[in-house]
Specification:
The protein is of the alpha/beta class. Helix content is 43%, strand content 15%. The chain starts with a helix and ends with a helix.
Length: 201
């Protein structure tokens, strides 16, 4: 269709001219590039498969493995721009490589809790206290946060942990010693692998 005819048709139908639409889209793209928060990410190979790590201005905001790259990126803040930047992620990925090499048991990196509820933040910050090679029960975590009857809610908060491994939700098990749900990787098999790797099983 002729461009002029298309513009006349859009005007007749009450829609904006193509030029106006293009200008509007250009302004939105410019605003997004300038105002939207930046989330940088990278990927590294691990025994559990490709591990993806994302970093916001606040700190590491997401880790996942056993998923496709597109699925990982889709799980990030939809209002943010994403950019692969190995250099920016190097401090975090170096620590994760050391962990999988058996040379690190604790992590020292800033974490972004901004997309978590206050309850989930409390639960996950408590999980950070569990040493490698040991396990706590959901009840023990609930008691540690002063909510002894909140074992189920604790399990839900741990199950939606966006920063697994670094926040070691895999170190929390059932009161009967069973391994309950794990939201990262291949689920229970990944949780079992991590606990065996750390010497807890």
């Amino acid at each position: 269709m002729d461009e002029q005819l298309e513009q006349q048709l859009q005007i007749a139908l009450g829609g904006p001219p193509a030029e106006a639409t293009a200008r509007s889209r250009k302004r939105v793209r410019a605003w997004f590039a300038e105002a939207a928060p930046l989330v940088q990410w990278d990927a590294i190979p691990t025994p559990l498969g490709t591990l993806y790590v994302a970093l916001s201005a606040e700190g590491v905001c997401s880790i996942d493995f056993g998923v496709a790259e597109a699925a990982f990126l889709a799980s990030l803040d939809p209002a943010a721009r994403t950019e692969r930047n190995p250099e920016a992620l190097a401090p975090a990925t170096a620590q994760l490589r050391e962990y999988f090499a058996g040379k690190r048991a604790r992590f020292d990196m800033p974490l972004d809790f901004s997309r978590m509820t206050p309850f989930q933040r409390t639960v996950l910050q408590t999980a950070l206290r569990i040493p490698a090679g040991t396990v706590w029960t959901y009840g023990e975590v609930a008691r540690a946060i002063g909510r002894p009857r909140a074992s189920r809610a604790v399990g839900q908060a741990l199950g939606s942990n966006p920063i697994p491994i670094v926040i070691p939700c895999h170190r929390v098990i059932g009161s009967d010693g069973s391994l309950h749900g794990y939201g990262a990787g291949s689920g229970i098999p990944s949780k079992q692998w991590l606990l065996q790797f750390e010497g807890a099983l």
